[in-house]
Design a protein that fits this description.
Length: about 170
């Protein structure tokens, strides 16, 4: 949804305010802003501090890997058979927990932003857990990497708008 369109529909003045992922909930709860218009992963942890609209899209869970590792990450069972694969992931507790549950032998490392993985010269990661959509975009910019959805998949992530209680009736 376009912010200007939403403002017209609500008959309010539209103003852009810069907030970070770390300050979204505070900005929404203190009235600094009424809505975060980028697609936000609606996680249980985030739902503790902010409200969400109904999901507006869904991204597919995937890995971004060095091109030569595509086959190793092509199936969940192959990843589970690897000796201590090193997987980077956003520092979001339920994502880290999901990876630990599926890949108990993996070394899961919070990494933010994804450029830490892409620019890594020390080979400290085998993969980064992200979404197909984001991994594909990164692989276009850095052709030495490939997006991989393991066979049988790993689910997805609903994206929603984080909003203040003022907007509840308009976005549901």
């Amino acid at each position: 949804m376009d912010p200007m369109f939403l403002a017209v529909q609500l008959q309010v003045r539209h103003e852009l305010v810069l907030v970070t992922r770390e300050t979204m909930d505070e900005a929404l709860n203190t009235g600094v802003c009424d809505i975060v218009m980028s697609g936000i992963r609606a996680t249980p942890q985030r739902a503790k501090g902010m409200q969400f609209s109904k999901p507006s899209a869904e991204e597919t869970a995937a890995f971004l890997v060095s091109d030569h590792l595509r086959e190793k990450f092509s199936q969940i069972s192959k990843i589970q058979e690897m000796h201590s694969p090193r997987i980077g992931v956003s520092n979001i507790p339920n994502l880290i927990e999901r990876l630990h549950n599926v890949f108990p032998n993996a070394k899961i490392v919070p990494v933010e932003p994804i450029t830490t993985f892409v620019n890594d010269q020390t080979n400290q990661f085998d993969a980064v857990y992200t979404t197909w959509e984001r991994a594909t975009a990164w692989s276009l910019l850095h052709p030495q990497f490939a997006p991989v959805i393991p066979e049988t998949g790993m689910g997805g992530f609903p994206l929603a708008y984080a909003r203040s209680s003022f907007l509840c009736e308009y976005l549901d």
